[in-house]
Amino acid sequence: MPVRNEDWVLGLSARVALQWCDELVMLCHASSDKSASIMREISDEHPGRVHLALNEDSEWREMQHRGYLLRIARAAQATHIAIVDADEILTGNLVVRMRGLVESMPRGSILQLPGYNLRGDLRRYHANGIWGNRWFSVVFADDPRLGWCGDRFHHREPMGPALNEWRPVPQGYGGVMHLWGLNERRLIAKHAAYKMVETLRWPNKPRAEIDRMYSQAFNPAANPRFDQVWRYATAPESWWEPYQDLLGRLKSDAEPWQEQMCRELYAQHGVARFKGLDLFGVCEAKGAVA
């Protein structure tokens, strides 16, 4: 589990992951909030089941981070690897089924579960369009030829021999709840940060392409291949019921750390560097330098 300033959700998501994973590997990456202390607290609660790692380099290199987590899991002699992000929660109705599902995986496959992008509420998720009817890769049997490398963003599945998609749970019957859009302020700040980081890291990448990519979270017309009128569905109570005693650890309204990051990048690199990007007004907040 890669962690960068996730104290708003980590106390919930890591404890949920430990309900269906034998062990949990967490990498605290340049966090300035309470993430590290939450990780130590969880480690103390589950002796021998939590592996902690620290990376103070402020540069976000997702592929290297995932690869490092995989090496730690292999050192712990893991046979199956779960892919869990800090803002993801397995639906409660599947916790008792996960071991059986993993044991039933066909050889050379990757377990994929329905992914529900929450929007504005714990029980409201996208039911159509680009954010609806998603599938999240969750578990694969380890193979030394598999791993992560390079410098890409958002590459969830391991690279190497192709893995067959195995989808034993139908859409609407549980899966992974992505708390991605639970708070609109955080969603805006995160996508503004993505735009700025990609622009700085890949200066030859067309600005219009970057802008369109990260505007899709708010503007259905940004991707005409999908439905232009978003619909939403309500998650059953059974998806959250087993976690009622943990929900007090969720701080969905906490201030997003990406806002400050965006303002700093804006001040450091100047307006011209980000011309052509809609940054949703994030950089104009709190007297940012123009």
Helix content: 25-40%
Report the CATH topology name of the domain at 2-179.
Answer: Spore Coat Polysaccharide Biosynthesis Protein SpsA, Chain A
Number of helical segments? 7
The geometry reads as globular
CATH architecture of the domain at 2-179: Alpha-Beta Complex
Give the structural class.
alpha/beta
- Succession of helices and strands: EHEHEHEEHEEEEEHHEH
Q: Sheet bearing the most strands, described?
A: 6 strands, mixed
Mean pLDDT: 94
The percentage of residues in β strands lies in: 15-25%
Distance between the termini: 36 Å
DSSP strand count: 11
CATH superfamily heading of the domain at 2-179: Spore Coat Polysaccharide Biosynthesis Protein SpsA, Chain A
Provide the gyration radius in Å: 19 Å
Main attributes?
290 residues, three-stranded parallel β-sheet, globular, six-stranded mixed β-sheet
Give a quick summary of the entry:
This protein has 290 residues and is α/β, with parallel strands linked by helices.
